[in-house]
User: Fold these one by one.
Assistant:
Number 1:
Amino acid sequence: MIVLKNKVILKNGAVAGTISYNYNEFLDRMGITEFTKQSVIDYANSSQVIGLYVSVFITIFIYSFMMYLLTTLSNVVFLSIFRLFSNMDSSYQNEIFTSI
């Protein structure tokens, strides 16, 4: 990634070549007319940044919950399959020993 004065150039392994983004095009889509260091500092110190913090927190919380849920479900499936195989083995052995 190369950050220049008026654009950002990205090189991605999945895409042949480079991708270039102009700041003006990106900021016009967001409705921002002026982009300076002072406006970034003012935004970081304003009360609007709380919305950003809340959205990041909610995103991380949902992602963490989904990962926890998927891990728990996969553990349940793997342990139940393991138990199924272990019970098959022990019941088969019990049948052999009782028939002798």
Note: The chain has a mean pLDDT of 81.
Number 2:
Amino acid sequence: MINALPLALAAFLSLAPAKPAHKPVVASPVADNASFVLVENHRNVPVEVFVEAFDGEQSLGMVAPGAAETLALDPAITSDHEVSFLLDPKGEEVQATQLIPLTPGKGIELKVPARPNLLW
């Protein structure tokens, strides 16, 4: 399913109205055996993504408004089996996911909705 995601994402982004200031960004592919999170940011502000595990939190990167980024997870974090993600939209309240089980080499998809408090 995750292999078809880039095509579906490209189709989705091509239907969105053109935004001259921001083009959708696709990060470099992660290694085949690495776990990753695909973040789609539907907000009009950048969102910093953190992963929270038993030993603290780690910044994964920033996702531009209207963009999608594939962010690699540190192998040490994926050994925790369950993590939560913190999403920090610039100038807005931080949101957190519930605990999400991780499988090494598999991806997780997070969508940041256009409106706060509606994680998909």
Note: The radius of gyration is 14 Å.
